[in-house]
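> Could you send the Peroxidase prediction when you get a chance?

Sure thing. Input:
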Amino acid sequence: MSVHTDVALELDDIQRGVLSPRPTPYAATYLAFRIDDRGDGRELMRRASAAVTSAADSASPLGETWVSVAVTCRGLEALGVPRASLDTFAWEFRQGMAARAKALGDVGESSPEHWEAPLGTPDVHVVFTAVAPDPAHLEAAVDRARPAYDRLSGVTAIWRQDCYALPTETEHFGYRDGVSHPAVEGSGIPGSNQLEVPLKAGEFVLGYPDEIGGIQTPQPTRLGRNGSYAVFRKLHQNVGEFRRYLKDNSTGPQDEELIAAKIMGRWRSGAPLALAPQADDPALGADPHRRNTFLYESDDPAGFKTPGGCHIRRANPRDATVAGEVRLHRMIRRGAVYGPPLPNGALEDDGADRGLMFAFIGAHLGRQFEFVQSQWMNDGVFFGANNAKDPVTGSHDGSTDFTIPRRPLRRRLAPLPRFVVTRGGEYCFLPSLTALRWLGGLHD
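Output:
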């Protein structure tokens, strides 16, 4: 791995949504568009370059509010980006998420034929995202972006997803969300784990050296540099089934919360098992400076505190001994809740659509998002657990169980059903402000 060095990121050219953690609490909206007329699509890009917020704009009058614009490969084609340029983008991006479904574990009820239209189809070209601390600021952000797409007859709005923070500031399974965020060299934004050395800028922003010294930049440089890749996934959560599983496998309410913590790697308050192995510590869970500052290898290599197969240890093994180099697979993840909460205590789903809009940001779709999804979430070989899958998000079919390391005998829970179902998604490119203007200035 490369050594730590200072790097000067061109923050005024990078979209703020690439580097900034979402506010807490938050409100968010995703808007998808289809480009029917190339000229209007290019005009959309020109207007978008004035609507998006840069990473340097941390003192915006709107506060922790920003708009981001992402473009799919089909969108770049619709804008008239030359094939020679498209061929310099990541091949996973060129294929699109639907074509990668089997590798991602999107099978059965999660397969693309069951996705929510128009997600996964060639019609999704541009995705606007607005994020704010509350609905009033969100509306102001949407109003700011509206002139970019208003009155463009050749650009059609085809999908919208509104998201918001639950009153509990958790996701639908009841866990505190948005806890972990890596430090990126040159971003000026501290990471949530004070024990983690900042990652090279090129892991997340195109055009800069990454952890192995490589520089990935789609061509021409004006298009690729200061951009990033984004993955958007709409994930439906089977909340009633999750609650029933906890209840059916526990001896009582206290044991139920312990199982919930062992499955996630954190108590629902956000307190990690690594720092609070015996009982929940809500004060720790609420402290952003402490709740993510821990490692595994020094005092918990066997997973007696934090099971190796739990969700957070799979998503980021930190310093644990696993196959591969962990820093090459780090991701910026963001989650935003959609849909109404299932009433407390309800063990049967009410038919409402509820879940999480998952967002990944990074410069390496293959070795970051796809690797983590296929190898760490949907397999267990990397830490010696054969075909065991992630207990929360894994593509379960009722054939694999979850094991909790324990002395003198490990505890084995019942086979896991699928708690999270993919409802659709897209692979996108987050252009720099320079690239948005370049796209807007294309000529046939």
